[in-house]
Amino acid sequence: MGDRAQTPGERGDRYVRSDARDAWVVVRTELRARVRQTLETPRQLVSVAVLLLLVGILLPLFGVGAALSYGASLASGPPPVGRTGVLVAAAMGAGLYLGFSTAFQQLQLGTLSPLVRTAVPPRAVVVGRLTSELTQALVFVVLPAGLLLPAVAIGARNPIPAVLLALGLVPALLGSAFAGRLLGEGLAFANRWLGVSTWTKGAAILAATAAAYLGTQMWLESVFPDSSGTATEAGLQTIVPGAPLQAYASVILAPVGAQIRPLGLVVGAVLVAAVPLALAATVRFESWLLQREPEADRDGTGHADESRPVAAPFRATSATRVAWRYLLRTRRDPAMLAHLFPIFVGSLGILSTAATDLDTALWLAPGTAVIVGAALAGGAYCLNPLGDDRNQLPLVLTSTGSTAMVLRGRALAGITLGLLFAWGLAVPLELADGSGTHTVALALFAPILLLAGAGTALGMGALVPKFERSEYLNVERAHPSLLVSIGYMLGSIPVGIIGLVLFPTAVGDPSALHLAALGTYVLVIGAIGLAGYAAAVRRFDRLTLDDI
Q1: In this structure, are 286 and 398 located in the same domain?
Q2: Within 10 A of 360 (CB to CB), how many other CB atoms are there?
Q3: Residue 2 included in any domain
C-alpha cells in the first residue's frame, strides 16, 4: 500500500521539525567550538574568567543590599510598584543592548555563509546562530540574576516574589533582545549598503553617542536637580516611562497584594506578543540577508587607491616614513582605530561638564587633552604591534634584521596623533586662560608623557600579541587584547595627573625639592617606556613564521 498524501499542515510540521534539528546542530556546534576554543587558549580563558568574575559576582555584590531591601518591601507594606517598573525598564534596556551588540559583534566561529547556502536551510541557520549568540550573551544576565534573585527571596522571606519577578522580567528581556538584534542587523546592513565614506559613518556614530550621553546627563539632572545620588522610590517612578511599565509592574506583583491596573494587562499582553513577533521578524530578515550574494552589498569604504608621496616632516628617517604610511592607512580606513572607542566614551564626561559648567570645563580641558593625547600615542598603533599586520609579517620577518624600525614607526604615528591633542588643543586652551607658567609646563610635559606612553604600550602589547582576526564594533581585524587596552587606558590617567601636578609646580617654583620630584617622575616613566620598547623589540625579533 502506498503512503497516503500528506496534508499541507503535515508537510509544514515536517519542515519545522527538520529545521529544528538543523538549527540544533548549528547551536551545538557553535557552543562546543566556543568552549573548546576558550579552554585551549590560556589568554582567552583568563579574559573570560575575569569578565565573568566581574559581571557575574563583583558587580552584583554591590546590588545585594538593594535586592534585600526590595525583598523586604515586598513582605511588608504596599508593594513597590515604582521600583518594579524600574526593573522592567532595566530588563528592556539590557535586552536591547545584548541583542544590538550580538548583531554588531558576531560571536559565531568560522565563516558559515558559503556552506550553509547549499547545505542547510537558511531559516535553520539563522535560528541556530541567533540561539547560540544570544545564549552566550545572556550568560551575563543569568549570572547576576542567580545572585540577586536569591537575595530578593531572602529579603522577602519567601521565594514566591523572586519567582514572580523573574517570570515578569523574561518577556521584557527576550522581546527587547530580539528587537535589538533586528535593529542592529538593520543598521549593520545599512552600514554596508550606504555609499558614504567610512569617515562620514564614523562621525555620525560618534555624534549620536555624544548626543545620547549628553541628553541622558541633562535629563537626569532635570529629574534629580538636588540629588545626592540616592533616589527615592518616588524619584525612581519619574524616570520610568510613566504609567505603562508601572501598570505592568502591578500585574507582576498582583499575587503579593498589588492592585491590577487594566493598562498593565494590555502592556503585559504586548510584551508577551512581542517575543514571537520580534523573533519572527528577525529570523525572516536575517534569512533574507543570508541568501544575498556578498557582491550585492555596495562597498561604502571609500578608500583611496592612489598613492601619496611622503609628507616633508616624515622624510627624515625610515621610521618616520613608516609612521606616515600608518597615518595614511588610517586616513583611508579609520576603522583601524575602532578599538579606541572607549577613550571617546570616557572623554564624554568633559563634554557633559562643558554643557552644564563652561568655566569648570575650560579649567579641566587642557589637562584632559594631554591625557587623551597620551592614550592616543600608545593606544592607536602600539597595543597590538604587528598584530594587525599579519599579511605583511612574512615579508617583514624575512627581509629585515629587526622589527625595531616598524615599531618605532608605529610609535611615532601614535605620538603624532597624540600631539594633535597635547599641543594642538591643550596648549592653546591653556594659553587662552592667561597662565604662561602652565602653558610652558604643558608644552614641556606633553612630549615626555607621549613618548613614555608609546613605549609602555609597545611593551604591554608585546605581552599578549593577537594575530587572529575577530569582530569588534562591526570591524573585523586583529584587535588589541581587551585587558591590555583597559589596563593601559586606566593607567594613563593617574600617571598623567601626577605629571600635570609636578610640571607646573616645578616650572613655577624651581626649588630643589620640586626639581628632584620632577626628575624622579621623568626618570621613572622614561625607564618604563624604554623598557617596554626594548621588550617589544626583543619579543618580535624572536618571532618566526610558525608563530603567526
Answers
A1: no
A2: 12
A3: no
**498-511 pLDDT tens trace:** 998 898 888 888 88
Residues 170 and 263 in one domain: yes
Cell triple for residue 61?
555584590
pLDDT at 234: 45
49-83: per-residue pLDDT in tens? 777 787 777 777 888 888 888 888 888 778 888 88
| 359 shares a domain with 480 | yes
The CB density around residue 395, as the number of other CB atoms within 10 Å, is 10
How many CB atoms lie under 10 A from the CB of residue 279? 19
Q: Is 2 helix (H, G, I), strand (E, B) or coil?
A: coil
As for how many domains the chain has, the answer is: 2
344 and 396 share one domain: yes
- pTM of the entire structure? 0.61
pLDDT digits (tens, 9 = 90+) for 345-394: 766 665 555 555 556 666 777 888 888 888 889 988 988 887 777 677 76
pLDDT tier for residue 528 given thresholds of 50, 70 and 90: very high
C-alpha cell at 16: 519545522
**C-alpha span between 500 and 524 (Å, rounded):** 15
Tell me the per-residue pLDDT of 245-254, one tens digit each, with 9 for 90 and over.
888 988 998 8
Contact in structure between 145 and 56 (CB atoms under 8 Å): no
Q: 277 and 324 share a domain?
A: no
Whether 138 and 203 share a structural domain: yes
Quick check: is 303 in a domain? no
The label of the residue with cell 547545505 reads 119
Q: Return the amino acid letter for 414.
A: G
Measured distance CA(508)–CA(522) in Å, rounded: 17
Using alpha carbons only, what angle is made at residue 430 by residues 427 and 432, rounded to the nearest 5 degrees? 110
Residue 320: closest CA among 248, 258, 411: 411
**First CA to last CA distance, the chain:** 63
Q: Which amino acid is at 176?
A: S
**Cell numbers at residue 406, please?**
616598524
Q: What does the alpha-carbon distance between residue 462 and residue 456 come to, in Å, rounded to a whole number?
A: 10
Quote the percentage of the chain above a pLDDT of 70: 74
DSSP, res 311: P
Judge whether 32 and 136 are in contact, CB under 8 Å.
no
What element of type H or E holds 228?
A: none
Give just the sign of the alpha carbon dihedral 386, 390, 391, 395.
positive
pLDDT digits (tens, 9 = 90+) for 137-183: 888 888 888 888 888 889 888 888 889 899 999 999 999 999 989 98
Question: What grid cell was written down for 329?
Answer: 592607512
pLDDT score recorded for residue 167: 92
Same domain as 289, residue 382 = no
* Alpha carbons 283 and 124: distance in angstroms, whole number: 9
* Residues spanned by the domain of 387: 312-547
- Helix spans in 422-541 (H): 427-432, 436-463, 482-508, 512-541
